[in-house]
Amino acid sequence: MPDTIFHKIMRREIPADIVFEDDHVIAFRDIAPQAPVHVLFVPKRDFATLNDVPASEPEIIGRLAVAAAAWAKAQGFDEDGYRVVMNCNGDGGQTVFQIHLHLLAGAPLGRFGT
Ligand code: 5GP
Fold first, then answer.
1. Is 111 part of a structural domain of the chain?
2. Which is it for strands 82-85 and 18-21: parallel, antiparallel or unpaired?
3. 30 C-beta closer than 6 A to ligand 1
C-alpha cells in the first residue's frame, strides 16, 4: 500500500492546512509555497504518478481540475487567473509519489518556464 506524506495528511496523522475536501479529493496548502497561494489537490485513490491513471478513469484528473477551479473561483482568483500544474517523475520535478495538482495564485506568475 502506498504511503506518502500526503497519505499521512489524509489520515490526519500529520497536520496540514486543509482548505477543501469531498468524497474524492482533498486539498491543502503547500508547506513550501511557490506563490502567495499554493494549494495541492490530491485524489483519495492511490496513483503514484499521472502515468498510473487508467485511460478508462479520466474523472480522477477531472475531479482535481474541477475542484481546483471551483476553489480558485470561490477565493476570487478566477478573473485575475492562476496556474495549475502536475509534475510527473524525475524530469517533471515530482517529489511526492501520490498524484496531486498544484494550484498557484495570488500574483502574476509570468509565462511558464520564463
Ligand atoms: P511535487 O514536487 O511532487 O510536484 O510536489 C510536492 C509538493 O509537496 C511540494 O511543493 C512540497 O513543498 C509539498 N510538500 C512536501 N511535504 C509536505 C508536507 O509535509 N506538507 C505539505 N502541506 N506539503 C508538503
1. no
2. unpaired
3. yes
- Grid coordinates representing 24 are 474524492
Please report the pLDDT score of residue 37 as a whole number: 98
Regions of the chain short of the pLDDT cut 50? none
For the question of whether the overall pTM of this predicted structure is more than 0.90, the answer is yes
From 7, 24, 38, 100, the catalytic residue: 100
In a domain, 112, yes or no: no
Q: What is the domain extent for residue 60?
A: 5-105
Residue 27 lies in a domain: yes
- Beta-sheet strands, E only, within 15-105: 18-21, 25-29, 37-43, 82-85, 101-105
Query: Does some domain include residue 114?
Result: no
* pLDDT at residue number 112: 75
Nearest ligand 1 atom, CA 28: 22
Looking only at the bridges linking them, the beta strands covering 18-21 and 37-43 are unpaired
Task: Indicate if 100 belongs to the active site.
Answer: yes
Provide the domain count of the chain: 1
CATH code of residue 77: 3.30.428.10
